[in-house]
Design a protein that fits this description.
Length: 164
């Protein structure tokens, strides 16, 4: 199974929802609209020609300067043919809802909870979407890039010692 076959089947099934296809990195990366993310992943898993039956990982990302700053990345693997694929979808900051895929991959349960815990992305119809690594009363999402990396008011740091 090659990248052309995968993208051809996806474009045939979801002609308007495939936004970007990139094969320049280590694996085929396809960006899809949020509206078709669940159906796309179901198609990749259940189509006999594709057979991506293993969810390797799922994570959130935050690019605060982009028009759609939040995203979810899925890595799927066809174990029989040893083919991997990366699926991305992006969300606006004012609507961080995305459908859960726990009905397709049971491993998504923990991974979606972790993504919610760190980024605040809400997986609709998730069976138990609560914080998993941070305390329940935490009132922010620690992996969001809403704060500067360094304290600009510090006076006790000499940049000469840090290679700057």
């Amino acid at each position: 199974m090659d990248e052309k076959t995968i993208t051809g089947l996806l474009k045939e099934r979801f002609p308007a929802g495939i936004l970007v296809v990139d094969s320049s990195s280590d694996m085929l990366t396809i960006t899809v609209s949020r509206e078709i993310i669940h159906d796309t992943i179901r198609f990749l898993k259940e189509n006999p020609d594709l057979g991506f039956g293993f969810l390797t990982t799922l994570c959130g990302i935050h690019y605060p300067d982009d028009p759609l700053p939040f995203g979810v990345i899925y890595h799927l693997h066809n174990l029989e043919k040893n083919v991997r694929i990366r699926i991305k979808t992006f969300l606006p900051e004012d609507d961080l809802h995305i459908p859960t895929i726990t009905g397709l991959y049971s491993a998504a349960n923990w991974l979606e909870r972790e993504t919610y815990d760190f980024y605040g992305i809400i997986f609709d119809r998730h069976p138990n979407l609560i914080r998993i690594l941070n305390v329940e009363y935490l009132d922010y999402f620690p992996m969001r890039k809403g704060y500067p990396l360094e304290d600009p008011t510090r006076e006790d740091k000499d940049d000469r010692f840090f290679g700057r």
